[in-house]
Design goal:
The protein is an alpha/beta fold and about 210 residues long. The chain is built from eight helices and eight strands, in the order βαβααβαβαββαβαβα. The radius of gyration is 16 Å and the shape is globular.
Length: about 210
């Protein structure tokens, strides 16, 4: 495979493009691969609206998603990345991806704030649970084009559930770490190598330089 021409980054629930992983990867792209279109949007609370907006963005790019698009998603963003991969056949990197967000987010119905800006409020509506149920692919595909980074130390999601859902994909299973992947820099070379954004993973000992 070759490097994508367009890269989407999808943040998680209550997160934003200001998350440290999005900022870190965005800086690397700007410094090392400015030729690639980088898009890290603020996702709306409505899952149906979020996915529809992402599909519309890709359609306006007039590209072949299977050949030219890659998606990186964290937590709920990993769920959305799974949806896009199933519909478009694109490559996807999933970081502690939400497997059953309709179940897990039911307790968050109501007013919420974002982690990066507690002054930013949004309302997570009960009908969004149905939207998540409708969006969930029955099967994960294309597994051979997916990298899942799963932390056994995830304090929010069950790593066993993630591992079972993405069995057959390339999986990097971490003994510790956490839901946010606070050790993100340690995994950057694997992400870049999987997406063919560096010549070879073992050729870039310090992709953060």
């Amino acid at each position: 495979m070759v490097a994508p021409t367009h890269l989407l980054y999808l943040h998680g629930f209550r997160s934003s493009p200001r998350s440290f992983k999005a900022q870190r990867l965005g800086r690397w792209m700007a410094d090392h691969r400015p030729d690639i279109v980088w898009h890290c949007p603020q996702l709306p609370p409505s899952p149906a609206e979020a996915v529809a907006g992402l599909l519309d963005t890709v359609a306006h790019w007039s590209i072949d998603p299977a050949a030219q698009l890659a998606v990186v998603g964290s937590s709920l963003g990993g769920f959305y990345a799974t949806v896009l991969a199933a519909r478009l056949g694109c490559r996807a990197v999933l970081m502690n991806p939400a497997v059953e967000p309709a179940r897990d987010l039911a307790r968050y119905i109501g007013e919420q704030t974002t982690w990066q800006d507690p002054g930013a409020h949004f309302f997570f509506r009960s009908d969004y649970i149905g939207e998540l149920q409708d969006l969930r692919p029955a099967t994960v595909s294309p597994l051979q084009r997916m990298l899942a980074i799963i932390a056994q130390g995830d304090e929010l999601l069950d790593w066993r559930e993630m591992f079972a859902r993405y069995e057959g994909a390339t999986i990097k299973l971490l003994e510790g770490s956490d839901h946010a992947l606070s050790d993100f820099d340690e995994h950057l070379a694997d992400i870049l190598g999987f997406l063919d954004l560096i010549a070879a993973p073992d050729a870039a000992h310090s992709p953060c330089a």
